[in-house]
Amino acid sequence: MNTSVGGVYVTAGQATSCPAYVVCDSDGGVWLYRTATREVIQHSGAETLKYASVIPGLPVDLFFVDGGVFTPSDPTFRWPALSETSRIPEWLERHSAVTIMAMVLIPAFLWAMVVHVIPAGARWSVDYLPDTVSREMGKQTLSALDEIWFDPSELEFDTQQQVTRQWQQVLLQLGIHSEHYRLNFRASGIGANAFALPDGTVVITDDLVWLTREHPDALTAILLHEIGHVQHQHGMQLVAQTTATSLLFTIMLGDIEGAGEMVLGAGVGLAQNAFSRDMEREADKFALEKLKQLSISPTAFADAMRLLMESHGMETTKGDSQEDILQYISTHPGMLERIRGAEQAANSE
Amino acid sequence: MTTPHSAARPVPVEFTGKSGEYFKLWVVNLLLTIVTLGIYGAWAKVRNTQYMHGHTSIDGHRLRYLATPIQILKGRAIALALFITYSVLINVSVYLGLILPLIFMVAVPWLIKQGIRFSLRMTAYRNVRFSFTGTYGGALMAFLVYPLIGSVTFFLAMPWALKKIHEYMYDNITYGGKKLTLNNTTSFYYGVILIAMGIVIAIITALAMFFVGAGALASGDFRDPAVMMAIAPVFFLGYFLIVYGVSGFVMANLRNHIYNNLSMEGVASFDSSVSVPGYILLTFTNGLLLVFTLGLAYPVTQIRKAAYLAAATEVILQPGLEGLLNTVDDESAIGEETSEMFDADVSLI
Question: Which residues, other chains included, contact A313 with Cβ-Cβ below 8 Å and sequence gap of 6+?
């Protein structure tokens, strides 16, 4: 039986239209008639016809080879000649079971990507990056930091020498090749702090040297923490991870705007801070282990944290309820948590 | 061919898209996009746009979106390659990091222009495509120079800049070889934006007075969580009033102004009667929907917005529409698809 459907025909490349109807042949060809006069406008074989995408709730346009378009008036009408594959997307888009499945799978898949796949990929990829990349990045980052945050160190030469000797001693005793590692002194308004750059450049501020003057083991603990970052290639990992995550989200969710983007962005930010905290923990663990190896008690690490807290005006005796709340938005684990970790390590000796 | 309409006649813009139907389509396409790491996104973009265009009809004829997924995919692949190169270079070298953004800044107007052009050329009404005749020079002025002038004059020239931007975006649209003309007036932009600023200042003053009062009561350390919790609701109320109330006021008025002064000689003119409270209510409820569904209601908000704007719009068709010829061929210029990434769409309705 031949299918017949009414609609509107618009002539090729022209804004002129007329009511029309189409009768389908059994072999996929069609006859197009003008409704008013019932005369044939054209007859086309199956091979010359093109169909528009099949979209839920919309009629499927029929394109003739000369550029004319016929639109069925019934939005639910589907051409008998449409292939099965061209109807698959519409089938998926119409079924509620598929909708529900999608709503479960979307967050699950995103979570797996951000929490497992990308970090693993970042960890794996840093081994394959040539050293020149991290060296160049370290150099550029240091010069940028020098511009913004740092001034030349005001420490006396003797003091610098003394700390450098301590640092070299640590590297030597642990058998770490010191050619990649360089210790830099800088004055800065940010207070007592230390940084590790991907290429093995470690920067300590003058304030930190003054703060730990009476506690050389505490300084060793901090230096070990920074060495831990370099040994684990945390800097490069973080760059790879951030780039991969933002790239993936741009590709996958480029079409989502506004609040959705904000929610996703915040989620990714939180996940990334979690990784940053994991890296800090890893560096802490490295420091504690190496302290033991150097026959220094891990309490030196706890001392270092207390000194830092005091110098930054934080109370060491306050409970950590506030720390718990702030934890999720922080890039570092709570100081008290880190102190406890060090003390536990000391007790387990 | 058909009965020619001899006089101008106003016809409504009908939008027949349904929230549930579009949500199902959108969410399935999002899943497919995510699990294919973004590749299906090109198909998703086309299907989403086809749904929105196809459900918008004027005088019984639906708008049609003609871009093919392969076109979009190709453009996105190029954009992705450029983006990766850009981020790598920017991370590797601080100096490239300073120069590349400048190059990018100069390229952006071109990309926006190509993006507008692409989305218009891929849109057809009655088998005749829209197009865009804006030049790079015009885009450079509209998207870089005018906003710059607007901001260096402490926003005194911003209303004028906005007027020029709209002029560039709408005055260069063509349909069937005929040009749209926008007769927007600078004084209207100043009027609307001055009133809006007056409202903003009033809200901020009221909030400031409230905070000073509250601060005095609480003998005010705003960092205290208890004080923060107490003032947060008022702060957010002010924020929402400004974001939704004032921007809704501006958007509704400017939209009406643009459409009421837009015409194509002998073919069509427009009538827009978006009500300010109605539009504010729409954007506010859409915002709530997004927040409370973590962005999942995005497609629903799209449908609600399209339906609302369509209902407030009328097209006055003139006899010149019949017999217009399509002047746009299928070929698209380099960079058009690439810049589809920027989503610089001019919304036609």
Answer: none
